[in-house]
Every structure is written in C-alpha cells, then in structure tokens.
Predict the structure.
Amino acid sequence: MPHDALLALQTDHLKEIQLRYELALAAHGFDSLLIASGAAPYRYGDDQAWHFQGYGPFLHWTGLAGREHCWLLIRAGHKPVLWLFEPVDFWHASPSLTEEPWQDFIDVRSSASPKAPVLEHSGKLAVIGDPVVIEGVTGEANPEGLLRELDETRVRKTQYEIECLAQANRLALNGHAAAREAFLDGESEFGINLAYQQATGQREADAPYPSIIGLNEHAGILHYQYFDTRPRGQPRSLLIDAGVRFRGYCSDITRTTAGPYEEHFAALIQGLERLQLRLCGMVAPDVDYIDIHRKTHQGIAALLSATGLVSNLDDRDIVEQGITRVFFPHGIGHFLGVQVHDVAGKPTPPPEDSPFLRLTRRLEPGMVVTIEPGLYFIPSLLDPLLAGELGQYLNQPLISRLRGCGGIRIEDNLVVTEDGSRNLTREL
C-alpha cells in the first residue's frame, strides 16, 4: 500500500480504538486511563539497560516502539494526550517525529521528566503498565478486569493495523530471500543473520523477536538462539524464523531450505508446504483454531507414512499413539499484532494433548494468526520413541540420516476476512 494511503487509515484506526477503550473504561467504572510506555530495566550490577520495545497498549495507540518514559492519557469525550519524554541531554538523541495524521488526533506534548504527569479532573483513573514504572502513580494500578477487556480491543485488527502487518511481511520477505541466498553461498549462521538484517534495514535489537537461524541439526532446536560464526561444513539445511517490526506491528515468518544433495529432506519440505497451504486454506470465520491444530497432526501422520518414516500403522494410530507429537511438538500458531504472540489468545486452556497451543478461539474477521506446522528430528523426543515399543514402526536408518538436517517449519501470517482469509506472507 502506498505511504499516503496507509497514513489515510491512521485516523480511522484511532477513532475505532478510542471507541473501544471508552467502552472498556465505562464497563469497569473508570473515567480515564493513563498508559505508561515503560522503560528498560538496568542489568543487575551494571550501568547498562536491556533493549526496550514498549508496552503493548501504548504501541496500539502510537506505534512508537522505542520511546521510554512516555505517558498517554485516554478520557471519554476528550482528545487523548501524549507526553513524550524528550530530555535535555548530551548523552543520547531524542528522535524527532515525522508529521503524520495521528498527531492531529492526539495532543502531543514534550516532557523533560520521565515521571508521570500530574493530572487534574481525571475522575476515577486507571494506570496501566510495568508495575515498576507505575509504582506510586496516582490511580488504580493494572486493574485485572480492565486489562482483560483492553486485551480484547486488540483481537480484531483495524484496516490500518492490517496494512502495517502486510508491510512488515513485505520487508521480512526481502530478508528471507537474502538469507536463503547466503545459505546457498555457504555462509555461516552469523553471516546469514547479517544478510537478513542488511536486506530488511532493521537492527536485530529492533526486530520483534531474536531471529532463529539454524543450520543442519540446529534447525531441530525450536528456539535456537546462537549464531555460529563459521560455516558448518556441508550445508544440509537452513531453518530461519525471523520478522520485522513496522510502525509497532510484527511479522513472524519461517522458511526451511534443503542443502544440495538432500533430496529426501527436500521432499519432506515440499510435503510439509503442501500441508501448510491446506491448513492456510482452513482459515475462515467461525473456524475453531483447535480444529486446524488437530488437522495438522492428521496431515503430519499422512506425511510420515507417505515418506516412509513410519510404516505398518494407519494414520489414525500414528496420531493416537502420540507419534506425531514427537515430530510436531508445538502448536500450529498464535495471534499476531504489536506483540509476536499477541494477547487474548487463550480464553480457555489448550487441550491436554496440546499444552503449547497459544490460541484456542474460534476465528473472526479481523483476527490475524500464524499457521506454522513443523516436522523435526529432535533427539530428546525421538530417542525414547525409538527405544520403546513403537520404535518398530519407525524407519530408524532413514531417521538416522535425517537427524543432521534438524527439522522443518513453514510459517505464514493470515488475516481472517469476511469470507475466508488473506495470506499476508504469500500475496506478493
């Protein structure tokens, strides 16, 4: 979407969330709400702070992910007021704001103090944010019922939010293409990460989450967090799970690439991608997200059978005996927004057989979700299965060869529409 068209959606977005917040405040008996952007805590025994990205409700309104010690006041029937912390300081720069429509909707004021503003005529006031930051501020701190209701205001995205998420996907896809080329050129995990950052133009510290870049067996560690600085010999596989933050909104994309001469692993990737696209096709209004998760296990069972990894068991038994949970131990996805694992996804607990599922709701238009099936060769899960009674049904020589490839995950970001879905990751 062109920049001017995106900006034209800002005011409508703010009007909508002002209405949602006013209704939430009225429902819980509050006249006004003060939102703290937050501040990065200092490391213990050090004078350096952790990197800061901001509190979700503050980002929902402003998109200003890196602004500490700011305060936003919401009152029914009044213009919101934003106090931006802009100290007179020769140590650090205070970023300037580009003029945009939201600054006409919100009264933006500069403050040289990190402290909360002194408020008059605020009525019954709620204050939300990091408990350390809001300690001692006048008002009711983090009222539980109101916080739950405010989480709900972020479940159905406005058109502005959807277009921000779409742009975050576009930028991340540039990085994924560069990472794939770096892998095929024989780069290390560190080198692949540099290629991703260069292509996206975003520091990793400012990305929505630390990139997961695993070569070979590292691809089987779901949240692999280290980057080898040297190439790992024969490049057998790359799994990259990486996103971009755009105006506060996150993309979360995963791709897996087979190395040269890894024909069987490449076939597994193709099979999982076909399954992933079928699962994406299930995303529609009134679909129970848990049903998509269960359908994933059925698809994984069929893939295990078709590729010879499991034999002499029908697909139903492969699922019921827990074999698919060894190869696919996580949930099928989650909400996405100003947080990667966005809020309000689990009004009910996940099923006992799917404890890591992060979303247990029926889908509605405006929701944004990820669909991310995986198939992994994880020693800590595989070894007990292979040594047990069910090991007789597994192709142990083939599994032994594929262990060094680590695993596969394929992840897209989708918007639920009125009659189906829009795949933000693949629409280009």
About this structure: The longest strand covers residues 237-242. The radius of gyration is 24 Å.
